[in-house]
Amino acid sequence: MSIYRDTLLFAVAGYNLAETSRMLEIAKAVRTYFNVMFMSYGGKFEKLIEKENFPLRKIEPRLSTSRLAKLRRTLSGETLNTIAYLTEEELLARVPNEIALYEEIKPAAVLTGWCLSVTISARVARIPFVNVLHSTTIREYYEAGLQSWPDRTNFFFVRWLFGNNEERMNKWISRLVLNLAAPIRAYNVVGIKYGLEKFTNFIDLIEGDHILLADIPEWVGLPKLRSKLHYIGPLPARLDLPIPQRICDLRRDMPVVYFAMGSSGKPRLVKRIIEGFRDKPYHVIAPVASHMEGMQVNVPANVIVTGLLPAHRVNSLADISVIHGGQNTVMNACLSGTVIVGVGMHPEQQANLDACVRKGFAIRLNKRTLSAAKVLEAIDRLLHDAKSRQRVHQFRSQLQKWNGPENAAKFLQETFGLSLTPASYPKQPNTVSNQDAR
Question: Could you give the CA distance from residue 171 to residue 417 in angstroms, rounded to a whole number?
Answer without folding.
Answer: 41
